[in-house]
């Protein structure tokens, strides 16, 4: 286990500051924040396990342009080619439930012949048969009221535009002004990963991306501790000048119980994948924890873990206490060798994997796989329950290598997909600026916390 407790380190730093000499305004400010953190922490009970909470938010920077990396689309700040949607010459019509383009055309007084011409133009206009409620159509008219121009967002980044000069229709696809901005943020976990993410300006979707990125190395159900920290470089996507959605993670550092993990995005075979700084794929043959942690770790209670840790020694597996119905995943690719009910195990599933590894999952409320079935890593095989010999809903999970039970939380997991020499060289070039930016980010927040 990890003995490098971040709390000890942190309070140690604090003490040295109290007796220290460098009294710049910045440090005084940091001290005030830390003192507030202590005061708040003290109200909540045992100060030994209470985190010192300070804000590690850094101002977002928009000026960062990474070196030309394969697959990292930093976007272009080109002028929008299309008329803005607010242009008054456009008449906007939102599709209602049960409406087709045919009914919309009739409502607008456009001829059936015009619609027929449009539909027959090309593959893009054929898509207009599959419009959905909430979709937006925009129209411009000739003086006689007939259709002059129609605009429809076929996907996130493109408009389908139909021009009609009164004689014939012409279709064109116009790219919208999508800009990807690179942002950075950081956070310290005080009560839960989701809360820390929120404080760092991340939505839950981005927090899940972060957790999924490190989910092969870190057990986000049992191993997350107050004081764990993360630093993140990620994309935000803007369309026509306003925020559209979060993009992908470009690079991240996660410190779990004093142990540092890093992941860097790299395009491989036309697909974005994540690698550790040494070139090891973040993806492993097995998930560290085979269940959806977002159901569990919404609130963090360190005391909860002690009985579980004791019980790890008492029997051959780990008990993940989780709400009934929490989805349980196949930890790795394999074949279901048992899916059954028994008096002690309740509904249970055993999976045979490569390398003579068997994983076992007990006490499901419901199983979703059959004996003999092949399963993929991350596939839902059942839901947490309390069937068999179980007092409360939990997943009992075992990891068996060559017939020997191993601790699922610490067993070294087989690796997948190592980079070839030329790929590794390309990865190193691509990773260098991301790693140096992460270092800068880490150093900045370390300085802020001293
Ligand atoms: Zn158990």
Describe the protein in words.
By secondary structure, the chain is of the alpha+beta class. It folds into four domains: 54 residues, no CATH class; 165 residues, Roll (Nuclear Transport Factor 2, Chain: A); 85 residues, Nuclear Transport Factor 2, Chain: A, CATH 3.10.450; 114 residues, Distorted Sandwich (Glucose Permease (Domain IIA)), CATH 2.70.70.10. Helices cover 24% and strands 30% of the residues. The chain contains nine helices and 19 strands. The strands form three sheets. Strands 11, 12, 13, 14, 15, 16, 17, 18 and 19 form a nine-stranded antiparallel β-sheet that branches. A hairpin with a 2-residue loop joins strand 3 and strand 4. The chain binds zinc ion (ZN). Zinc ion binds next to loops.
List the helices and strands and how they pair.
Layout: H1 6-18, H2 25-43, E1 91-94, H3 101-108, H4 112-119, H5 123-126, E2 136-141, E3 147-155, E4 158-164, E5 169-175, E6 178-188, H6 193-199, H7 204-214, E7 229-239, E8 242-256, E9 259-268, E10 271-275, H8 305-314, E11 318-321, E12 327-329, E13 334-342, E14 346-352, E15 357-367, E16 374-375, E17 380-384, E18 394-401, E19 404-406, H9 421-448
Antiparallel strand pairs: 1-2, 2-3, 3-4, 4-5, 6-7, 7-8, 8-9, 9-10, 11-18, 12-17, 13-14, 13-16, 14-15, 15-17, 15-18, 18-19
Bound molecules: zinc ion (ZN).
Zinc ion binds next to loops.
């Amino acid at each position: 286990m990890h003995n490098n407790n971040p709390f000890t380190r942190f309070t140690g730093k604090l003490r040295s500051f109290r007796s220290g000499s460098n009294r710049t305004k910045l440090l005084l400010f940091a001290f005030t924040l830390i003192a507030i953190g202590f005061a708040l922490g003290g109200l909540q009970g045992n100060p030994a396990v209470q985190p010192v909470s300070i804000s590690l938010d850094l101002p977002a920077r928009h000026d960062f342009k990474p070196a030309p990396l394969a697959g990292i689309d930093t976007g272009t700040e080109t002028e929008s080619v299309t008329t803005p949607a607010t242009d008054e010459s456009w008449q906007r019509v939102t599709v209602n439930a049960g409406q087709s383009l045919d009914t919309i055309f009739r409502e607008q007084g456009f001829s059936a012949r015009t619609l027929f011409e449009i539909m027959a133009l090309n593959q893009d206009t054929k898509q207009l048969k599959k419009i959905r409620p909430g979709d937006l159509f925009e129209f411009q008219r000739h003086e006689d009221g007939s259709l002059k121009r129609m605009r429809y967002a076929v996907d996130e980044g493109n408009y389908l535009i139909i021009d009609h000069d009164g004689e014939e229709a012409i279709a064109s696809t116009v790219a919208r002004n999508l800009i990807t901005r690179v942002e950075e943020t950081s956070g310290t976990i005080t009560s839960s990963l989701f809360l820390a993410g929120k404080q760092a300006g991340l939505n839950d979707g981005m927090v899940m991306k972060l957790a999924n990125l490190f989910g092969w190395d870190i057990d986000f159900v049992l191993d997350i501790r107050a004081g764990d920290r993360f630093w993140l470089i990620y994309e935000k996507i803007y369309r026509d000048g306003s925020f559209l959605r979060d993009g992908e993670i470009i690079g991240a550092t996660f410190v779990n119980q004093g142990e540092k993990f890093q992941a860097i995005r790299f395009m491989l075979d036309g697909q974005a994948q994540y690698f550790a700084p040494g070139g090891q794929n973040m993806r492993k043959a097995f998930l560290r924890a085979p269940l959806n942690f977002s159901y569990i770790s919404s609130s963090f209670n360190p005391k909860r873990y002690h009985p579980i840790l004791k019980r790890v020694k008492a029997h051959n597996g780990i008990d993940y206490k989780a709400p009934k119905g929490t989805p349980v995943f196949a930890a790795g690719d394999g074949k279901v060798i048992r899916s059954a009910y028994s008096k002690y195990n309740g509904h249970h599933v055993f999976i045979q994997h490569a390398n003579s590894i068997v994983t076992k999952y007990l006490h499901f409320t419901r199983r979703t796989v059959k004996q003999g079935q092949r399963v993929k890593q991350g596939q839902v095989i059942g839901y947490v329950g309390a069937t068999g010999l179980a007092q409360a809903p939990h997943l009992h999970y075992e990891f068996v290598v060559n017939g020997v039970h191993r601790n699922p939380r610490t067993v070294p997991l087989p690796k997948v997909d190592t980079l070839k020499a030329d790929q590794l060289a390309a990865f190193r070039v691509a990773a260098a600026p991301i790693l140096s930016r992460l270092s800068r980010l880490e150093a900045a927040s370390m300085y802020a916390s001293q």
